[in-house]
Structures are given as C-alpha cells and as structure tokens.
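FW: tagging you since you asked about this chain on Friday. Here's the raw sequence from the shared folder, copied in full. Didn't touch anything.
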Amino acid sequence: MKTIHNNISKWLLGLALPLGGVASGALCSSCSDFLEVEPQNLITIDQFWNEENDVESVIMGCYSFMADNDYLSRVMIWGEFRSENIVSYSSTIDKDKNLEKILDENLTANNGYTSWTSFYTIINRCNTVIDHAPEVAANDPSYTQSEMKAHIAEAIALRSLSYFYLIRTFRDVPYNNETYYDDGQTLALPATPFNVVLDSLIVALEGVADDAIETYPESKLYYNTGRITKWAIYAMLSEMYLWKEDYQNCIKYADLIIARKRKEAKEDDPSANYSYMNNYPLIWCGKPGVTNYYGEAFNDIFVTGNSQESIFELNYDKKGDAGKTQSNTPVSNFFGNDGRDPFCNASDYVLSDMGSSTPAVFTNKYDGRGYENLYYNGTGDATRINKYVTSTRIQLYGTTSAVVSFGSSSTSYGIPYSTFGKDYDSRNKSNYIIYRLTDIMLLEAEAYAQLIGENGLQTAQDSAYRDSAFTLVDAVNRRSMFVPDTTSSASYAAYRLNKSDYTTRLSMANLVIEERERELMFEGKRWYDLVRRSRRDGDTSYMREKVKQKSASKASVIESQLQKMDRIYWPYNLDETKTNGYLVQNPAFGSGESTSIEKTAN
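HL: got it, structure written out here
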C-alpha cells in the first residue's frame, strides 16, 4: 500500500484549488472527511483516489499552483528577463538581489531563481493523476472513460508544458514520468538531452490530443482558455515542432488552431469582416477614420482576459474578495501596481523608442503596441511598463499639429498618446497569457521563413513560402496600427510593411523575430526566441547584438558573457548539483561554487 507522507499530502490535498479559488472550498467532501480522522503524517493513497472529484481537485490544484508566485515568476524571468527588453528599476531592485544579478547578466548557480522545484512539483502531481485516474474510473461508475481520458490528456499537457519550460531554460534536465510518493524515495537522475525530452513530449502530446476537451459548456466558458484544451495542446505541438526544426508539422498544428479560431469568430459574429487583417480573426486595435479611438485589442486581451484570441492563460478571479483569491503577485512585483514601484522596468532601448523619429523596435509611432506595452504621454520617452498592470480600459488619442517622418514620407497625422487606466492595487488580477493566436501565427511565419531556400526566391515554392510568412506577419502588424485613414491616404503606404523588402530567408526570419518582439513584449517569450535563433544559427551573434542594447554602460560585459553557446542556458541550481550527483554543471558556469564566473574553454 502506497502512502503519502506529511509534506506530500499538503501539496496533493491542501493545494487542490479551483482557478482563483480558495482553500476552504476547494477540497471535495471525501478528502476533508478522512483528513479529519487519519493521522496527518500517514495518509493512504487508496483513501484519496475514490471518485472523479478527487481527480478534478488535483488537476485544478495544478492550475492554482502554476498561477502562484514561485512558478509564474520563473515563467516570466526565464522567458524574458535576460533579453534586451527588461532592466532593473533602480529605486526598488535592491529588494531582490537575485533578480538584479539576472538583469545584469551576472547569473550564477547559487541564484534562487535557478531553482526548478515548483516545475517538478507540477510534473509529479500530473504523474499522480495519470497513475490513479484509471483506478478511479474503475471504482466510480459515474466517471466515464471519456472523462478519464480527458483528465489524463490534461495532466500530460500540463506536465509537458513544465518540461518544455525546463528544457528551453536549462537545455538538458532530469526526465522522469514516475510518481514520487515517499519522502525517502531517491530522485537523483542524470539529465536527459534536450532533443530526447522534446521528442518524448511531442509523442506524449500527439498520443492524447484527441482525448482532450475541445469546448467546455457555456456554464464554464472561461475554462476554454483557462484550462488545457485540444487547441492548447496543438499550440504546444506547433511550438515544439518549431524548436525541433520540423517546420511542416509546426505549420500543420498552427493551421488547425487558426481554422478553429476562424470558426469561433464566425459563430460569434457571422457578419464580421477580417479582410483588412488578411482574413485572420484578430480583434481590432485601431479604427480607420476615427481619431479618438483605441479599439478592443488591448482591453479584451490584457484587461478583460479570455479574449477570442486566447488559447491558454492562467486565470485570476477579478471579482473575489480581498484575501480570499489568488493575486498575480509576480506582475505586481516585477511591473508594479498602484502605490508600489516595480522591481523591473523596460530598458532605455525600448523606452526611448516611443519618442524617436526613427524607432528601432516599433515600426512607427502609430504602432498601437507601443502604447499597450509602455506608459507614454506623447512627449519625451516612455516611463515604464504598462502591459498587465492597468486594470481598466485605456484610450488612444492623436494630436493634430505634429509632423511625423517615416522613411521618405512625412505626414501631418498627429503623434498618438494614451490615457491610462487605473493600475491594479496590491492584488493584481491580470490573467497571464501562455498562448494566444498572434503568437501561433508568428510561430507559423517563422516556420515558413525557414523553408525559403538558402539563395532566396529562386523557385515558385520559395516565393510561396515567403508570401505565406509575410501574410501572417503583415496581418499581425496591420491590426496594431493607429492611422487615421487606412484606405485613401497616399502616404499611408509608408506605414505598411512592404513584401518586396523581404526576398531572402534571413530578411524574412529577421522580420518575424522583430514582429514577435513588438507583439509579445513582456509576455515571457523574448529570451526563448533568442535562444531558438541561436540554436538554429549555431552561434550567439544575433543574440549578443540584441541583448547588449539593454545597457550602454554594460554592453561590453553582456557581449562577453554571451559569447559561448552554453551561456544561452541557465546553470543548474547549486543545491541540485550537490543533492543529485548525476548532474553535470553547465560548463559556462564552472563549478557553480563561486559567485564569479569561472572561465572555461570555448
């Protein structure tokens, strides 16, 4: 008979929360009943896994745990904070020295953010569900085979997502799909190579995709984006195949998602016309011919949450009473809230872009994403990060006197500026997005770009691949533009991407990764994009040129630190290497014993 010892019982039962739920109401009655009479240090597995609610409560606890500070803070930091987009906020960063070192590219093995414990906790919980759901189905007549398979598919997807974060961050990691029950059980395992783990994740996801829920009932509509569905699994597969450099399969799964989103958009509004955005069902950002209008994109996606473009996001209850629901603590800590300065800020490279006549990041001053991502009042530089921080809708305005130059054209269209909604208070309730439609579209565009021949547009197939990649990028770019007249102005063309500028694989690949930065800034994507680019190129030259822009004073240090390919990954936490003798430290970080980086051969 297997037992769950005290600390394991806490994670299995005490953290089994619904999305945004509270501990007091989360446990099923059968769980709470036997916990009241059984010794707390020895709980038998057989006494827990009795009915469908037991399986459901553990899965819901996984979402709650992922939305908590320990897990989500690493999703944000690992995926974004070593990039050129983020620097420290000087007046408050001393409250988090580990974070300060990461932002300065002074990364060592004793940094607390290298700990992966929360990810393996999710992995182990999912393994437990996979182990015991069949037993519950055998004992609970109301628990159908389809429901059991859907739960197992959900658990495999959440486990795979955690492993996917781990390999993108650390490269090779211990890979184990057996459940850990006993405090004394040895979990020391050697690291499994990146490609072996990636292939295993793909096989597992493809094996259960058809078992996953496609659509939840109307009574649980937010589950369609707040829980794993078939479409979330397809999103994971599309990205995993891109990392595998299997571009046709990346495109295959992206197309399935896009087709689904088109179907949903048509059902929601049969009269909607998306021709302006190349027939992709994207929410309007700017409205042609209307001056004081921002549109719905930012507000629906980031303020309200669970938008028509969402595929999977971590939900926070925006209506709950203070102290009784989860808060998005990482966003409050890193990006700030009402009355609290953040630990991080956008880099000067990004902030100054909003006040520049020759922007380096955003294509021009009418790119609405600049106003989504940053606080900017129309003069000088932007001041700090806006995305995920504001709790109410924002409005974009245009002045009438300023002249903006873009390329060889000038126009009297006014420079836009924003009025901002109120920041969340200390209880930030902003959902955190893992996958949304434009992310998938740009992953697909990257795949098409890589299919272009080495010598550019030499064949009709090369041109078709270029056209497909460009159409996807152009759709994302078009919907973000705030230009007073999108149809009749002769100078409007100056604000549009021009397909004829992209005639090689490299030029198209550069456009895609630049558009991903504009579209997904501060969403935990940028560093992984740079890592994927470095893996494909076989060197860090592109990454170095980008990341050193975050700090003029530290550019040479950053460039030096990122010379080695090993350095694009993170070191194993020092405690992990001491506990698990099979782990061999990333050579870019020496032994990890010293706070300074030990030099190793290239």
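FW: The chain has two domains: 3-212, 275-537.
HL: agreed, and The mean pLDDT is 83.
FW: great, closing this out.
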